[in-house]
Amino acid sequence: MHLxxxxxxxxxxxxxxxxxxxxxxxxxxxxxxxxxxxDQAPGTLDQPVKTLQRAQQLVRLVRKEGHRAAVNVFxxxxxxxxxxxxxxxxxxxxxxxxxxxxxxYHHEKVTLSGGRRLHVAWVPWKNGIYxxxxxxxxxxxxxxxxxxxxxxxxxPNKDTTVAIFNGVSRDALSAARxxxxxxxxxxxxHALQKSHWGSLSYQITGKDSAGRLTVVGGYQINRxxxxxxxxxxxxxxxxxxxxxxxxxxxxxxHLLYYKPPPNLNLRQAKIEVPVLMELVIxxxxxxxxxxxxxxxxxxFTHTRxxxxxxxxxxxxxxxxxxxxxxxxxSGTAHCSFSHCNFESPGGNALFxxxxxxxxxxxxxxxRNAGASGICFVGDPLAVRSPSFSxxxxxxxxxxxxxxxxxxSDFPRDCYVYDNLIVGTGSIEKQTAGVQLSMCMGIQVxxxxxxxxxxxxxxxxxxxxxxxxxxxxxxxxxxxxxxDHGAFNSWGRDRYWSPDRSYMDSLVAVHPELVKLDVIHPxxxxxxxxxxxxxxxxxxxxxxxxxxxxxxxxxxxGIKLREGFYRTVxxxxxxxxxxxxxxxxxxxHVLFMHNIIMRPYAPIRITYWGDSIDYNLFxxxxxxxxxxxxxxxxxxxxxxxxxxxxxxxxxxxxxxxAVAATGFRNFSMHDFGVVSPALKRLVPQxxxxxxxxxxxxxxxxxVHRWRGAVLKKVEGPGEQSALGLASAARIYVAGILPGSxxxxxxxxxxDVILRxxxxxxxxxxxxxxxxxxxxxxxTSVDVFRxxxxxxxxxxxxx
Length: 797
Known about the structure:
Blueprint: H1 5-16, E1 28-33, H2 52-64, E2 70-75, E3 78-81, E4 86-88, E5 100-104, E6 110-113, E7 115-118, E8 123-126, E9 129-133, E10 144-145, E11 148-149, E12 151-152, E13 154-155, H3 175-180, E14 188-193, E15 199-207, E16 213-217, E17 227-235, E18 246-250, E19 255-258, E20 271-274, E21 280-283, E22 290-291, E23 293-296, E24 298-301, E25 312-313, E26 320-321, E27 327-330, E28 332-333, E29 336-338, E30 341-343, E31 350-353, E32 356-357, E33 360-362, E34 365-367, E35 374-377, E36 411-412, E37 415-417, E38 420-422, E39 432-437, E40 443-445, E41 448-450, E42 455-459, E43 468-470, E44 473-475, E45 485-490, H4 500-509, E46 522-525, E47 528-529, E48 535-540, E49 546-549, E50 552-553, E51 558-561, E52 566-569, E53 572-573, E54 578-581, E55 590-592, E56 595-596, E57 611-613, E58 616-617, H5 621-628, E59 636-637, E60 642-644, E61 649-652, H6 656-661, H7 676-679, E62 702-705, E63 708-712, H8 715-722, E64 730-735, H9 740-743, E65 751-755, E66 758-759, H10 763-771, E67 777-784, E68 787-794
Parallel strand pairs: 1-2, 2-5, 3-6, 4-21, 5-23, 6-24, 12-18, 21-27, 22-28, 23-29, 24-30, 27-31, 28-32, 29-33, 30-34, 31-35, 32-36, 33-37, 34-38, 35-39, 37-40, 38-41, 39-42, 40-43, 41-44, 42-45, 43-46, 44-47, 45-48, 46-49, 47-50, 48-51, 49-52, 50-53, 51-54, 52-55, 53-56, 55-57, 56-58, 58-59
Antiparallel strand pairs: 7-20, 8-9, 9-19, 10-11, 10-20, 13-17, 14-15, 14-17, 15-16, 18-19, 25-26, 60-61, 62-63, 63-64, 64-65, 65-66, 65-67, 67-68
């Protein structure tokens, strides 16, 4: 019998797997890959192939021959430097009784790298810096030496004790410093956005004739693009290479500069640089998904940074995103990643884009990602009447009033279980450990997420709900930004508008609009959240249709801004409270059976929902204040006794007062990851000691002026409610209709920015500026509905 080389390989594989002469359902094919293999080999244990792409071809050939049972692709230990991403297409489709699994062999360490190993000849340059001429023609943005990521030359120098960007400076862009840069082209500027809602990045393209920098970029978030000039650093500039472990690459001259630490043998060091952005791509569609492809026990590393590609808005959330990651999945079903490590991705680790069904990420470690950990993001074309910026909305007469999505092109019913996600957002700050947008039924269960610049878990919008956030441990959050939470969400759905008066009138007449997008409730149950720089749970800007049940909130309490149909029950808020912000009439909020340890902190609340009652306050004054507002007629007051807070046990002693509220204790020691190997990587926790009840009420100073009541902005709550970058402002806390100030256009919640040419940050500024106003009219700049507006106020007479 004559066999072609391909047929010979197939026959060899089938014979090795024991396939011949036995039922296919009971068999499996084994294909072996080794960094020392040969792609002309048959792919057996003794004669492995060399590349994953060749193993993929063999899988397709075996399938073509009619084999339908499971196929295991075993990778022998070593680092596989990919020349291009491994791409799965519809022809790789498998079935549940014949899945394809790429996995390590007998626990050998397998690494897929998007990098290249460099072999260079270092020569001393100056000031302890070495230089090497590279023959490579590709660019790169990271340098790994002996497996450790180094620091691209920057100012100010990296300081791990500084939270924001590990070091920022107001003089990073000073004229003198810019003048010292001879060739700054391809340098980068990174800064926090002015309100600290995220970060913005710019690439330097050169200098103009006046010596000023020319740049492109600044589009990475979906809100105001002004930067905080005090929160800036620059990188990839040769003149800033001044300390050990810093490097710079002159791509035009192919020169690599590096300042090694004293104990490093640079000539023997392993040098690696990333050249790929994605390592594995699943490319199917709704009719022909890639299915039943699994990865198990693989490490993924060395992918390029993507912050200059982050520009697609996620509806009206604060985010822009880049649809890419170490692994990009689009058009998949029943695929999984298990026991995998994602080390220092340049951007996102895993990105589920558009149609994905029943996929799983479990038992994985994601560490030090440049952007987010795991993202589920649907196609905006599946959204009815979408809007893409905060200020945008579709008027009622043009609104699609059909509930739910227009198509199935979005992630649904996927599972994120037992993953450790740490240190995301190393460059991009508007990121999260797990991000959900335009998806449905995503289960995020038993994950540990910590040391992140913004939220640990974020739901960007109400499309289309049904998500389950359960048994997670999320801490060390919002470390570099502000006005956010360990869990954060936005609503900003079809009914929502930045014009509050329009929105109030709309939902009063058409309450059915509020559930057109969030057609299933989101469940947040039995999580341990801690945010020391915001809220533990932050439902912002119209987030609707949530059940928040049996969560342990360790510092920031729970905030609900706007929105409808929220049930908050049986939660414990250690050393904090409930923060209701600017609710609607008939919001249908239930807040019951909770333990709070501070008085409520309402901001601009006129209507108090369906039932705010049967709660336990830590002091006797708080329920009296609540009853005066018409809530908590059956609530109790008692400082609760807990099990052992030092070990994280906050189970309340069930005495008569606690029992009367209906609060029920819940488990305190099974949050977060469950795998022993992942548990060992989680740092030892320090839990807060329950503090006594709040002291005396602080006196609030107001200033009455022309029928308006002016008040200083105090605390992050009022700052968030007003959408301000800084609390150093005064605003209109109340105003009488028909009063002189009202007739001149001033409205409640206007923030007064400027009178004439004088900035207003205090009552002293206000009195001084108004006292000096002359003429019949005075210009007054206010901040209203997230926009600046100029009014003309009549003279005092």
